[in-house]
Every structure is written in C-alpha cells, then in structure tokens.
Design goal:
The protein is α/β, with parallel strands linked by helices. It has 2 domains: 2-168 and 224-250, 3-Layer(aba) Sandwich (Rossmann fold); 189-220 and 253-333, UDP-galactose 4-epimerase, domain 1 (Alpha-Beta Complex). The protein is 41% helix and 17% strand. Strand 5 (110-116), helix 5 (139-158) and strand 6 (161-167) form a beta-alpha-beta unit. It binds uridine-5'-diphosphate-4-deoxy-4-fluoro-alpha-D-galactose.
Length: 336
Amino acid sequence: MRALVTGGAGYIGSHAVRALAARGHEPVVFDNLSRGHREAVIDAPIIVGDLLSPGDTAQAIASSRAEAVLHFAGLTYVGESVGHPDVYYRNNVAGTMNLLDAMREHRVGTIIFSSTAAVYGDPVRLPIDEDHPLAPVSPYGRSKLMVEWMLRDRAASLGLRYVALRYFNAAGSSLDGRIGEDHEPETHLIPRVLLAAAGELPELTILGTDWDTPDGTCIRDYIHVEDLAEAHVLALDHLAGGGRSASWNLGTGKGCSVREVIACAEKVTGRKVPLVEGGRRAGDPAVLVAAADRIQRELGWRPRHLDLEAIVASAWRWVERGGRYARLAAARGAGR
Ligand code: UFG
C-alpha cells in the first residue's frame, strides 16, 4: 500500500518507515525536518514540507498518491508544551486538521495516529487499560487527545477509518544500528543514562527518589521502537482489511524503575553511570504501566523485546556508533 508517513524522519516514524518497506508497503515521508533528520529516512523518498501549510499538505497527499496516512509528525515534550501551549495546539491540532482536510479532499480515508499514554493523565488504577479515564495533565497530552476526538467524530460522520496508538515509553534503536534516537535537547531517561555512561553528559540526575514506589524512583513501561513500528504495520493491514477503528495502548505491561534502568545500563555498557539525586520533575506520575493485551488480542501484535537489557543494549549500540546523525554524516564526510 502507498502510505504517506508524516514525521517519517523522526525517531519512531523513521523506524516505522523501514518496517513498512520491509513488509512490501510503499512509504513516502512528509516531514518539515524541524526535529527530524533526513539521514534517518532509509528505504523511502522524502517530501520536505509543513503540515501547517494546507498547500504543502495537499500537495504531499496528491503527489505521493497515498492510499493511507501514518501520522507521526508532532511536538512531543511535556515540559515544553506547558511553556508553549500555543505552539503545541497549532502544530499538533491545527496541523492535523490540515492533514485530515487534505485527506478528505483527495479521498484518503485511512489513518494511523501516534497518540500517547499522556492522554490518561495521572493514573487512577494500574495497569492502565484503554477504558481508563482520559484526563491529560499537560497541553501535550490534551493536544493528542483532541486529535483522537477529531478522529472519532470524523469516523462517525465522514467515513474516516483510524487507529490511534497510545505509546508508553518508546526506547531503543534499530537492531542493525543504522537509525536511533537523536533529540535536541535529549530529555529521555535511557539516552541520557547512556550519554552519561559514555562521558557525554557529566552525570545523570535522578528526578526524584521519594516517589511511592519500591525503590523511590519512577516506574515506566519501556517499549522497543521496533515493536512500536511493527504495530503500525499491523494496524495498517487491519484497516486495509476492513477492520474497525480503535484506540489501543502500546506497551509491554512491565514496569521498570529509574534505578533499574541505571543498573541495566551499567551492566550493558560495563561502565559506571555518574549519578546525582535531584528533586521531582513537575508533571511526572510515579508509575505508568500499560495493559496492552487488547491490541495483542485484536491484531496478534506481540512485543519481541520484553527484556529491558535488550532494549538498552540496542540504544547503546547507537550511542557507541556516534548517536547523532550529524556526527555520523561528518564521520562519513571525513572518510572514516
Ligand atoms: N528521568 C530521570 N532523569 C532524567 C530523565 C528522566 O530521572 O534525566 C526520569 C523521569 O523523571 C521519569 C522517567 O525517567 O520518571 C522517564 O522519563 P522520560 O523523560 O524518559 O519519559 P516520560 O515518562 O517523562 O515521557 C513519556 C513519553 C512522553 C509521554 C509521557 C507520559 O516520552 O511522550 O511519557 O507521561 F507524554
């Protein structure tokens, strides 16, 4: 199937592009490269343009002759969204409206949307299943939930068919080490722990040691980025085969604490991670763990990397290679 992949130069999108191509689909990336990396796009052509431009967006849908859309493009920092809600609602909500309008104009009726565990807000029960109350606590989470509502309403009256995938903590890099996580700034735990192990950060600050958890640090459900990518292929095949619209969680169902991640990183790298114990980060819930059996039941999706060590090891291979697209490109340019 020909699929337009918005945000296909970003961390999760770039892995999904490769998974789609490997399964015989024909992905075409649409990305403004504001946060993505051209070098991350392997196995697909790229159209550089902006979802905030209705013209760019309609042109991308038309020229790619897309039969479906996978919509990864969006801003994803919870903290940034608190300071710049206007930017988040414009990019994540208004940008998606442009996309949905262009899809309608060109009679593309199928979309897979990157949603997030942040739509649930602070958990009232664990693990979090899809029926958990939707009460996001940040503009980021609210912007993603607004899009889910738009999808649901357009499905009810305009015939759109969609799957929204609510990611828990995406982690790791492609097993062949060719693509990985390259955010600026990097705020996520696993890359920061590994950058500290590699000596590229002076230390790793543990954001709170007094949480109501067994070791006092926050617990998250880390899911390998290739498992996330695979779920998108299955979701696309599901809709192409006439399957129903849905919102599903993507996690492993297993929680790991910050201290467990650090211990795992020390084992994988064979290095000591320099640590500082800091205060809590505003907006962090103590525990986020998915109940992700629904997509397993309905699509037969199975996460293959259930072991934190395998996830961290794949992320470490990427950091050892250089961990930044610009750096890899410079090394290639210098003939190394
Ligand atoms: N953490 C540290 N030190 C750091 C960075 C993170 O201790 O330097 C801790 C955080 O406090 C948190 C855990 O590590 O407890 C994981 O933090 P991440 O920043 O890696 O991930 P989050 O759980 O904050 O964010 C994820 C997704 C978001 C989503 C959010 C929902 O990346 O897209 O979950 O709350 F919105």
